[in-house]
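dumping this here before i forget
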Amino acid sequence: MEIKTENFDFELPGELIAQRPLEQRDSSALLHLDRAGGTWTDRRFAELPELLRRGDLLVMNDTRVVPARFYCTRSTGGRVEGLFLQVADAGRWEVMLKNAGRCRPGELLTLAARDESDCLPIELIENLGQGCWIAAPHSERDALDILNSVGTVPLPPYIRRDAEADDEADRRRYQTIYASQPGAVAAPTAGLHFTPEIFDALSDAGVSTCRLTLHVGAGTFLPVKTDDLASHQMHSETYELSGRTAETLNAARDEGRRIVAIGTTTVRVLETLAARSDRFAAAAGSTDIFIYPPAEFRAVDTLITNFHLPKSTLLMLVSAFCTPGRIEGVETMLAAYRHAVERKYRFFSYGDAMLIE
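structure:
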């Protein structure tokens, strides 16, 4: 059987797309999938410490979401919506602009601060195509300082509510409690369920933790536009893994303990590095790894993840993880998703979680 993009489609009622987080992070539902048997059980995320094993190593992505969404005005009065992607070089940003079809290189826009007292010009330098631009703020301040003044939380496009009005609440909840390295424009959402109480219970249960960083980019929401998966060009994201984390990972593998990844972003870093060497070492760089059935997994034994968009690269990754090296995981995953729809699980970034082991 040849796997195509259409094989990863499923029907999802719009009302199951979570628009807001639950009041308590760890009160989410948890679908526990046994990939060996292809069966699942309905649990609660607060039960996670009972489900993992003593000796497991939990790996988290400590990237921090920056307030990357901003708004500009043209000299004509038109409003342009922007998304900061990354610093291109000194004093220049790579951004994605919406409603900028008539904009031209050299044009000055005005970045509007949230309190309207800290506006500054931003010059459009180069049109990169597909809505992306190089732009230069007329300021000596660094990007994060400017974004903290003018930016709002870059909620995913399927969250359809007034994000600006709820920005203060989203700044707290669209962020893991262990986020520490600024640079992401989307949250590693599998980590949103964790609380200090969960980590305390995991420690008591003999589960240890370590950290790495992958700055999640806007490409995480891009659809696969080709039906032939091998032709899809994956977006690139920057990562960093410390020497200390490398030692911790190597020790777990040497001792036969499971490596449990919190989220697909963590999987991407671990599998990128494991494909290069049998031993982990300190590393920093970028990865455009695309994992889809029938991929093999060299590093990750267990995965905690959220529910993902139809036909998305993330759904393809978790389907591959169901049955490494084989394609049957696609049907297993879609059957689990159909169950989640029937039981009215909450989907996507602010939704519920899945444990695959």
